[in-house]
Amino acid sequence: MSDLEQPINTEENNVNKPIKQKKFKKNNNQKIIQELTDDIKRIQAEYINYKRRSEEEKQRAVALGKEQAVSVLLPIIDNLERAIVHQPKDIADHAWVKGVAGVEKQLNSQLQGIGLVKIGVVGDEFNPDLHNAVSMQEGDGDKEVITAVLQSGFMLDGKVVRHAMVQVGKQ
């Protein structure tokens, strides 16, 4: 090998080698930092999704609980309404009868407070999504309306819990 072909061993060459290694380490560190940053972002997104799903599940559980409680109370509401409608005339002014009527009003008020709405009123237009027609009266018109309510229907937060059983006539 000639002197020209041999690498010159200078301090400058020795300094460059560690610098290249430092650049390599720096690039490697940047890659690791980027991977860790991506992992943190992914974990944050998973946590946000977890919180959202948990809140949705909690709301569904509350809604289901309300619906089940209301379903259990519907026969009691029906019986209270029947008792008030069929009260004997001779005891209409009795304090006990007024107390039962007050309990029924209070129960209806509390149930309205949680989102329960009574459906099926005489004179309303018949809607098969809300009402079950159990009988039909003949009439002259084209419009089907409720002529009698045999059993009240209820909606809870916009969802039908029980369809109203109604008699329908044409007007």
Summarize it.
With 171 residues, the protein is α+β, with helices and mostly antiparallel strands. 55% of the residues lie in helices and 20% in strands.
Question: Care to describe what's here?
Answer:
The protein has a 3-stranded antiparallel beta sheet. Helices cover 55% and strands 20% of the residues. The mean pLDDT is 86. The longest helix has 75 residues, at 11-85. With 171 residues, it is of the alpha+beta class. The protein is built from 2 helices and 6 strands; from the N terminus they run H-H-E-E-E-E-E-E.
Number of strands: 6
What is the CA-based Rg, rounded? 38 Å
Parts with pLDDT < 50 across at least 5 consecutive residues:
none
First-to-last CA distance: 116 Å
The largest sheet is:
3 strands, antiparallel
- In DSSP terms (H or I, runs of 4 or more residues), the helix count works out at 2
What fraction strand? 15-25%
Lateral strand order in the biggest sheet: 1-4-5
- The secondary structure category is alpha+beta
Strand and helix order: HHEEEEEE
Characterize the quaternary organization of these chains.
Answer: single chain
User: Whole-number average pLDDT?
Assistant: 86
Helix content: 40-55%
Which overall shape is indicated by the principal axes computed on the Cα atoms? elongated
SSE map:
Blueprint: H1 11-85, H2 95-113, E1 116-119, E2 131-137, E3 144-151, E4 153-156, E5 159-162, E6 164-170
Parallel strand pairs: 2-6
Antiparallel strand pairs: 1-4, 3-6, 4-5
Helix pairs in contact: 1-2
